[in-house]
Amino acid sequence: MTTKIEKQITAYEVVRPENKKEESNVAHIAPLLERDDVLEGSTYKIKTPHSEHALYITINDVVINIGKPDEHRRPFEIFINSKNMEHFMWIVALTRVISAIFRKGGDVTFLVEELKAVFDPLGGYYKKGGKYMPSMVAEIGEVIQQHLVTIGMMEGQLSTPELEAKRREAKDKLGDDAIAKGNMCDKCGAMAVVRLDNCNTCLECGDSKCG
Ligand SMILES: [Zn+2]
């Protein structure tokens, strides 16, 4: 439609057609998990030589399909607290991203591998008992692994009696220095392979090659 303008134009305004709501076009990839008011969780303490104060890692779970045969727990959110503010910014970023992945549902075990593969360019460190940690991020990955194993979402043998016996044996027979200089394991990638009773034994995953 055209309109003849008879007066002098002093100002103008573009009139936009009202936006139609296009809700039907919004693709919901996966429904987010819903949060109950009270969640059960676990808090893990880690102390690293890279930070003066301990980190406290809390992972809260939700129970899915309550009362059904496939009822199970899965992680919903993660919080990391420390008195140390030095790492505050990336820790907040990491917890938000991890929590978002937890809430999307589906498989979250890949997080463990991704985090455990992070190497600190300034060097890793050895935990008590001679377990090598390539970075603080890797240790956070290990805590998540420990949690997923505990709630049955992931297979793992973080602390079988056999593995603990091997670690004790290595400590007694070889000493801390030898454990700290462990070689890389072909199977799990940890710097934890030592020579024990004529076998190359990984103190992280228990893999052993004799001869
Ligand atoms: Zn291994």
Mean pLDDT rating:
83
In the sheet with the most strands, the strands line up as 6-7-8-9
- Total of domains: 2
Q: Using the alpha-carbon principal axes, give the shape.
A: elongated
Sheet with the most strands? 4 strands, antiparallel
Helix content: 25-40%
> Which residues form runs of ≥5 with pLDDT under 50?
none
Order of helices and strands: EEEHHEEHHHEEEE
Give the radius of gyration.
26 Å
Walk me through the structure.
By secondary structure, the protein is an alpha+beta fold. It has helices spanning 88-104, 110-116, 136-150, 161-174, 176-180, and strands at 40-46, 55-64, 72-81, 125-126, 132-133, 183-184, 191-196, 199-202, 208-210. It contains 5 helices and 9 strands. A 4-stranded antiparallel beta sheet has the order 6-7-8-9. The chain has a 3-stranded antiparallel beta sheet with strand order 1-2-3. A hairpin with a 6-residue loop joins strand 6 (183-184) and strand 7 (191-196). The N and C termini lie far apart (92 Å). The model has no long low-confidence stretch (mean pLDDT 83).
